[in-house]
TrEMBL record:
It comes from the Eukaryota. It comes from Daphnia pulex (Water flea). Transmembrane segments: none annotated. InterPro entries: Ig-like_dom (IPR007110), Ig-like_dom_sf (IPR036179), Ig-like_fold (IPR013783), Ig_sub (IPR003599), Ig_sub2 (IPR003598), Ig_V-set (IPR013106), Neural/epithelial_adhesion (IPR051170), Znf_CCHC (IPR001878). PROSITE patterns: IG_LIKE, ZF_CCHC. This is Uncharacterized protein. One of its GO terms (cellular component) is neuron projection. GO terms for molecular function: nucleic acid binding; zinc ion binding. Residues 27-42 form the CCHC-type domain. SMART domains: IG, IGc2. Residues 74-162, 177-263, 273-371 form the Ig-like domain. Keywords: Cell membrane, Disulfide bond, Glycoprotein, Immunoglobulin domain, Membrane, Metal-binding, Repeat, Signal, Zinc, Zinc-finger.
Length: 467
């Protein structure tokens, strides 16, 4: 409805309502810049879609209202966009309004009860905000540089028309995961074997991250009643009655869908006193031969290891062996395991005796012994002394050293053929300068291959000497 039509209605004294109602308004012109405004009595209603806006206090005849003619009411052209942004990045919210007229567009942060901007004028003192206007597109844009978590929330685009119109856009500020040192376990932890240990990892981020535990070497994690899983979720990981095989690096990985995920490496040292395992405790060797003794130790903290020899004198004391032209010691370590060996070359009578491998750490001491003796002269050409230890494979030593040692004497000629038995076998002959070994099944029986005839075996208990 334009000004002329409204003037005619004023002159005729009749207003037609939505339901074809008629009323005789008594109107007077009101001063409102840019609009032709009339305050009228005794009208029912009219159609806002025709370009007339009514502010009616009563819909019955006799009510008083205001008719504003000349422009349609402001309307939103599209919803305000919702935005999800990673912390530190820039965002923009756009509000498109048609038929704004003399009205103003305001941006309000509802969650902080803060007026951010009115039209292009910045109200807040936060310099990261700015407001812009595109007259061609009828858009009013709120810009935000370097979004922070406190910037998240509901933003209201409000037009101060009568009646007021509003719409809301939502800003979500997401934060990549992080692991907070406060409240998390240290990077290196020491615990005694058999005790329980709880590892914690506190994750932070928006949304709250999920924490997953894994072992760095890919081995399973034992938890609860020694159940094992490749990975476990939760802020904490409890290892009950922890064992030495559970030593190593554990990774806690925090992720929340916002890249990148982060992890923390926690190294766990399980401490225990030394343990020593000697595969062959009695060895026979012809004069002039060579032999290597093996000794396997486990200890954490890492043990000090060395070899000693019984002097055999009145005091019967141990003397630490030092390297010489014929005797030398060596060792290799992997984790808490150490493999010690002692090599004696050009065996002499003075070398006969008991040799000990010793391992010491702050929690205790352990030792193992090997008795070296000379073989009978009559065995020097066609016999070998076989030393059999009923123990598991050297790669998986028992938790306690095996004490049982059985000697087997055979009149078999030296051959490339092997013993077929269920445990470790060590043999030394006059024409051999190395130690032969075989580990097969774990049966405790001992037998010879059928093609070995005329075999005589003599078994003796540990620490008995061959006659």
């Amino acid at each position: 409805m334009d000004f002329e039509t409204l003037n005619k209605l004023k002159s005729s004294g009749t207003v037609v309502g939505l339901g074809n109602e008629t009323a005789r308004p008594a109107c007077k012109k009101c001063g409102y810049p840019g609009h032709l405004t009339f305050q009228c009595r005794n009208f029912l209603s009219t159609n806002p879609a025709s370009g007339v806006v009514l502010d009616v206090s009563s819909t019955r005849a006799g009510g008083i209202g205001t008719i504003v003619a000349g422009e349609p009411a402001p309307v939103f052209l599209e919803p305000v966009n919702n935005v999800t942004v990673v912390i530190g990045r820039d965002i923009s919210l756009t509000c498109a309004v048609d038929h704004l007229g003399p009205n103003k567009v305001a941006w309000i942060h509802l969650d902080r009860h803060m007026i951010v901007a009115i039209h292009q004028h910045l109200v807040t003192r936060i310099p990261r905000y700015s407001a812009t206007h595109d007259a061609h597109r009828n858009t009013w844009t709120l810009n935000l540089r370097g979004a922070q978590p406190e910037d998240a929330g509901r933003y209201l685009c409000q037009v101060n028309s009568n009646p007021m119109i509003t719409q809301v856009g939502i800003v979500d500020v997401v934060v990549p995961p992080a692991i907070v040192d406060a409240g998390s376990s240290a990077s290196h932890i020491t615990v005694r074997e058999g005790l329980s240990l709880t590892l914690t990892c506190r994750g932070d981020g928006v949304p709250a991250p999920k924490v997953t535990w894994r072992r760095e070497d890919g081995r399973p994690i034992f938890f609860g009643d020694k159940k094992k899983e490749a990975s476990i979720e939760g802020d904490s990981l409890t290892l009950n009655k922890i064992g030495r095989t559970e030593s190593g690096a554990y990774l806690c990985i925090a992720s929340n869908g916002v890249p990148p995920s982060v992890s923390k490496r926690i190294w766990v040292d399980v401490e225990f006193p030394p343990m020593v395992w000697v595969p062959a405790q009695i060895v026979g060797l012809p004069l002039g031969g060579s032999v290597t003794f093996d000794c396997f130790t486990e200890a954490q903290p890492k043990a000090i290891t060395y070899w000693t020899r019984m002097t055999g004198g009145p005091s019967d004391s141990d003397v630490v062996l030092l390297p010489s032209r014929r005797i030398h010691a060596d060792s290799t370590s992997s984790g808490y395991r150490t493999h010690m060996n002692l090599t004696i070359q050009s065996f002499e009578v003075k070398d006969i005796g008991t040799y000990r491998c010793v391992a010491k750490n702050s929690l205790g001491e352990a030792e193992g012994s090997v008795q070296l003796m000379e073989t009978e002269p009559e065995h020097s050409n066609n016999e070998m002394i076989v030393d059999v230890e009923f123990a598991k494979d050297v790669q998986s030593p028992p938790t306690t050293p095996q004490k049982t040692t059985i000697l087997a004497r055979s009149t078999v000629k030296p051959s490339t053929s092997t013993w077929q038995q269920g445990n470790r076998v060590q043999f030394i002959s006059n024409n051999s300068h190395s130690t032969g070994r075989q580990s097969t099944t774990r049966n405790s029986g001992l037998s010879l291959l059928p093609r070995w005839p005329d075999v005589m075996i003599l078994l003796a208990v540990t620490k008995l000497l061959l006659l």
